[in-house]
Amino acid sequence: MSDAANPPVDDVANEGNDDALGAFASGVETTEQFPLQVEGLRKSFGGITAVDGASFEVEAGTLTGLIGPNGAGKSTTFNLITGMLKPDSGTVTFNGEDITGLEPHEIANRGMVRTFQIARELSDMTVLENMMLAPKQQRGEKLWRSVAPVVRDDVREQEEELLERVWEVLDFFDIDHIAHEYAGNLSGGQRKLLEMARALLTDPDMLLLDEPFAGVNPTLEKKLLTHIHELREQGYTFLLVEHDMDLIMNNCEHVIVLHQGKVLTEGTPDDIRSNEDVIEAYLGGNV
Length: 287
Ligand SMILES: Nc1ncnc2c1ncn2[C@@H]1O[C@H](COP(=O)(O)OP(=O)(O)OP(=O)(O)O)[C@@H](O)[C@H]1O
Known about the structure:
Layout: H1 9-13, H2 18-26, H3 28-33, E1 36-45, E2 48-58, E3 63-67, H4 74-81, E4 89-94, E5 97-98, H5 104-109, E6 112-114, H6 127-137, H7 155-172, H8 188-201, E7 206-210, H9 218-233, E8 237-241, H10 245-251, E9 254-259, E10 262-267, H11 269-273, H12 276-284
Parallel strand pairs: 3-8, 3-9, 6-7, 7-8
Antiparallel strand pairs: 1-2, 1-4, 4-5, 9-10
Adenosine-5'-triphosphate (ATP) is lined by residues 45, 48, 50, 68, 70-76.
């Protein structure tokens, strides 16, 4: 755990509240403040150690960037967090629960989702059909945040409710006008919006975005960023892997730098920009 992500106990003690100090020390406070905690994560593929004891936390309600030179271990870290890969050692804690080694759908059920590229078979389905599939694949029992949860036995009513929610999310992402278009016909940017919309439909607490802007034109990139910031303001937490450094620096409030499978440093964009170790790691990494 880094100093930057884990405020000193003195900060809490300064509030003059012994209970708060006790809660912080026991981890209760930390869990709420930092829903994702990664501790000593390690993963090797044969002789290559892709992730080598990475430890970090992600603060609730932030847009946190995970950066690093090519091969630093970013994708592997994402895969370990979301259950796509099992770590050799280390732990992943989400909302206070040890989720290390759980299956991806079990992790999604707990409120952490990762955006996925639309699979080839889903390209033959319309945007609307893709959306209707999303919650069944992942987290159907929780509702889109702005709609009050209603428990009903009637399947048809549930379908209608889902459809209503789907339209709300499509409208939020401004892709309702392409609802009947085949996913395979969408532009790169529209597909990214659909991927985000599908993830959001499961009503997660936290979204992990792996290069959400790759292949997205500047207009749609701006739109996607606006949506991400709106959602962050609503309290969603984001962890973002992105190669576009300007985009990370201009949009994330906290940046974690991975290098050779370890956290090299973390801090605000200004801290990172002026950090000589980071500059050296990137130059050495030929980026
Ligand atoms: N399945 C695998 N089998 C063997 N080696 C792997 C595998 N996945 C990743 N690696 C290796 O682990 C290291 C970290 O890879 P990873 O893809 O996590 O890095 P990254 O930071 O996401 O890189 P990039 O920015 O280039 O996408 C690299 O050396 C990579 O070649």
